[in-house]
Amino acid sequence: MDIKVYLANKKDKVDRALEKLVPSGKTFPPSVHEAMRYSLFGGGKRVRPILALAAAEAVGAKSTADLLPIAGSLELIHTYSLIHDDLPAMDDDDFRRGRSTCHKMYGEAVAILAGDGLLNMAFEVLSDPRRLKAIPANRLVAIMKEISAASGVFGMIGGQVVDMESEGKDVDFATLEYMHTHKTGALIRASVRVGALYARAGKRQFTALTHYGEKVGLAFQIADDILDITGTQEEIGKDVGSDLKKGKKTYPSFFGLEESRVRAREVAADAVGALKDFDRKADPLRELAKYIVNRVN
What we know:
Strand content: under 5%
Order of helices and strands: HHHHEEHHHHHHHHHHH
Helix content: 55-70%
CATH architecture: Orthogonal Bundle
CATH superfamily: Farnesyl Diphosphate Synthase
């Protein structure tokens, strides 16, 4: 299969769903809605919602139309995390996806509130019976719990705290792995598990997809670590070498570039191996694992 065609098709569907979920930039008060849309529609690849859709397909979902709002909520949360991650109090970045970061465009206060708005809107979507009436309540609650846990202090937020507190320190590998599997990996793992929950995966399928999600999340962050050194500003859309400048521990700082590349490929192969009992409907997940470690942005 052509993974680029698959990604383009799914991204278009996710973007159309997001357009329906998020108010226009003219909605009062316009400043916060403009800022939310500026970051949300700023060129994201939609990896997390696409993983959810692909996982549901792998289990055998005949349609993922009812999953699209949930997939969109994953992107709302991811975008909120990027806005806050870029803030002066955190990574203090000026560029994201080749454009000025949200706080550089709209000011720090509006950027904070835009991130808050996206996070809360995600749970408005997840709890809206009009949009999700086709999904049984108990399954929807399980999906909401999965997403909220991955976004919280035992997931993404916890990883971000450890990341900030580790800057300039000689942390051990266990701390680095915690950062990677929580700050980035938790929401990626949850995205896969959400797709599995939606499609009513069996126990063995759910366990296999959980393993896949964990490994893909780790591979994604190792690839990011490598791109921070080898990418260009045009390719990655932000300043190159920012992790090194801030004294962040990364896979290359522990193992060097070549060993990090090897480890990224091994982790991705482990993710693909978790799908050995799935048929060709899981090919998009297999190809996504390879794409994640070979991407240039």
